[in-house]
Amino acid sequence: EIVLTQSPATLSLSPGERATLSCRASQSVSSYLAWYQQKPGQAPRLLIYDASNRATGIPARFSGSGSGTDFTLTISSLEPEDFAVYYCQQRSNLYTFGQGTKLEIK
Amino acid sequence: EVQLVESGGGLVKPGGSLRLSCAASGFTFSSYSMNWVRQAPGKGLEWVSSISSSSSYIYYADSVKGRFTISRDNAKNSLYLQMNSLRAEDTAVYYCARGAAAGFGTLHYWGQGTLVTVSS
Fold first, then answer.
1. What count of other Cβ atoms lies within 10 Å of the Cβ of residue B116?
2. What is the 3-state secondary structure (H, E, C) of chain B?
3. Do B4 and B109 meet the contact criterion of CB atoms below 8 Å apart?
4. A76/B35 Cα distance (integer angstroms)
């Protein structure tokens, strides 16, 4: 089983700041990594797929990078609606999710 | 517009059974793999099971293998999850999610989920 480890567990930032979220895989997942955003009471929403491709309708302030075992989700300038929980997920070998990073308002 | 609507959740006693359904619309259901993902209260996301477009390939998480059965009816545009021998740790919101037209792929679309509570 491929284990995904996200860091930090909680990130406290202010609107307008830059957010950098990390996801590390226990073995290479090539570029088969996605990022999801989840708000309370809502289903996850796909942000980034295959490491760096923005999903339909996702603003350009969201970007993804990385390959192999180390991946990053960057939000260039935080909007109030961006405060949520973010999960990474691999599809190289079935599916696994990271434990999530909570992005909270400072 | 792609829509996935789950149903069938509820309260069940430990050891009991429940069948979840997911009604799909807005796309050619028979062309896509489908998946179940769950989320225990206050916890993260956990992949449960996947089924290919023609039901030829089926996979389960170790935590549910031997107890849960995924299936689909392409004529009815529906996905199912038969859950037997339920345990307290199966308590979660269960989401259905659409995979890819080839292979399994990224989960681009998700339903709103249905809550399963296993308690005596």
1. 21
2. CCEEEEECCEEECCCCCEEEEEEEECCCHHHCCEEEEEECCCCCEEEEEEECCCCCCEEECCCCCCCEEEEEECCCCEEEEEECCCCHHHCEEEEEEECCCCCCCCCCEECCCEEEEECC
3. yes
4. 32
Mean pLDDT of the B18-24 span:
98
Chain B environment of A49 (Cβ under 8 Å): 106, 108
Test mutation, A1, A58, A91, A97, chain B, max B CBs within 10 A: A91
**Which one of A43, A49, A89 has the shortest CB-CB distance to B95?**
A43
> How confident is the model over A79-94, as pLDDT tens digits?
999 999 999 999 999 9
Lookup: tokens for A47: 């942000």
Name the residue of chain B whose CA is nearest to A99's CA. B44
